[in-house]
Structures are given as C-alpha cells and as structure tokens.
Design goal:
Length: 269
C-alpha cells in the first residue's frame, strides 16, 4: 500500500474515499506557535477549508456551529482529552498534536471510539515525517546493537520532559528489541545520586537537553563492538510539521478507530 501524498491527496470523506468536498477543519489552540502555523497551512491547502479557530478557552460548541468535519487539536494536555471526547461524541474526526496522551488516556479513548466505529482519531507525538522515519529506522536498527540511548534537545520553553517524540521512540525501540530477544543495554552504573544517567523510558535511557537557540532535535545512539550508528533528526521551525498535519487531516476519516503515531499512516511495514 502506498501512503497518501500530503501535497496532492483529496478529502477521503467519512471512510468512503470518494468525496471531493473540502475537509472542513476547526483548529483548537489556534493562537499558539504550532497553531498559527497550522491555521495558515490549512487555509492555504486547496482541498481543506478552515472553518473555525479556537483557543483553549473557547466553547467547543463553536466547532459544531462552524460545520466542521475534522478537529485539529493543538492545545494543552489538560484539555486535549475533553476536546477529543467531544469530537468523537459528535462524529468528528480528530487529529491530535498535543502531548500527555498516556496509555491510560488512550485506553479510555479506545473505549469511547468503540461506540462510534465510523470516527477516526490520530494522536501524533510528532508530525515531522523525517522524525517519524528516523524513529522507525532506529527501532529496526536497535534489534542489532547491544547498546542504545536517546538524546532529545529542545528550546527551554518546552514544558514537558522527556519529549513525546522521545517517549514514542523509546517505546518503538523497546518493542523491537523485545521481539528480537535483545536484552537491556549494558551499564555498570551503581551510583548515580544526581540522575546523570537520564530517565528510563520502557527500559531505554533518555536524556533531555533544554537550551536557548534549539528548536526540536533528537539523536538515537546505537553502539556495538568497534562501531557506532547515530540517527539524528533536526526540526528548525514548525514548518517541518505541516506536511504531517496535512497527511493526518487527509487520511484520518478513512482510518476509523485510534491511530497512535503518524507512522500508522506511512508504508513502513
């Protein structure tokens, strides 16, 4: 199966794949840094129609009043689950770029979606196609190296650590290594009172850097006898995420249920 080209794909409708009507999008969190990029991108896309721009404080009824078919949630973790639940209850497809979607929150959403089998929801820890591909490639490579660690580097205004992308990458790596029967990375550390070895996410060490001048960067370091392999991705501004946002909006209606990670919409095997 070939994944949709985000620059040319048309509205798939509510799972039919036949409608050529524009996708009517409401953007939540429209005033944020990511939201402003998304508003401009949606408004400029020929097959999308921007019908509403909401802040986190605006009543969700505005989404229905605007006649939206799709909701793009770029808000904050405290309100995102409520926004998505509202979308599902009213038969709207949702694309979510907000962090904080734990396994428990996703399980609750799965139960709700079971009552609305025609609705699609995409939760994307990262909308950058390059980042998603780098994480997927690193997970495959991690099956063949005894050591693996992640370094994620972001601007100092980021409120969560480790990043959602790093958590997702660690999970993919852990699953791939477990499937291949690869044990934990060797580590003789027994004394680390200040946490210098970083966080353990699904058994994978993750180190978070917050530094002025950075945007969003991640390295996956893999080590074996006499060699090192590094997968690095750099996003220099939020324009890097817009092709993924478009891909999500153009695909979600044709994929009922919950998809976690943009890789679900790519042909990665």
């Amino acid at each position: 199966m070939t994944s949709p080209d985000p620059s040319t794909a048309t509205h798939p409708g509510a799972g039919t794949g036949t409608s050529t009507e524009p996708i009517r999008v409401a953007v939540l969190g429209a005033g944020g840094k990511m939201g402003r990029f998304a508003v401009r991108t949606v408004a400029e896309a020929p097959d999308l129609e921007l019908v509403a721009e909401l802040s986190s404080a605006d009543p969700l009824q505005k989404v229905l009043d605007a006649g939206a078919s799709h909701l793009l949630d770029l808000t904050v973790p405290q309100v995102s689950p409520e926004n998505v639940a509202f979308a599902v209850e009213h038969g709207l497809h949702a694309v979510v770029g907000t962090s904080g979607w734990s396994a428990e929150r996703r399980a609750t959403l799965q139960e709700q979606l079971a009552q609305h089998p025609d609705v699609g929801v995409l939760i994307a820890p990262n909308f950058s196609l390059g980042s998603v591909l780098a994480s997927a490639f690193a997970a495959q490579a991690a099956r063949h190296f005894p050591s693996v660690e992640i370094i994620e580097m972001h601007h100092p205004d980021k409120v969560d650590a480790p990043s959602g992308t790093a958590v997702r990458t660690a999970g993919l790596i852990a699953d791939a290594r477990a499937e291949a029967g690869v044990g934990p990375s060797p580590d003789a550390t027994t004394h680390d009172p200040d946490g210098a070895r970083g966080a353990l996410v699904d058994g994978i060490r993750v180190h978070a850097v917050r530094l002025r001048g950075l945007e969003a960067h991640q390295e996956v370091l893999l080590g074996g006898p006499g060699e090192q392999l590094v997968f690095r991705h750099d996003a220099f501004d939020r324009g890097a995420y817009m092709p993924g946002v478009l891909l999500g909006l153009r695909t979600v209606a044709s994929r009922p249920g919950l998809a976690y990670g943009l890789d679900a919409y790519l042909d990665l095997g």
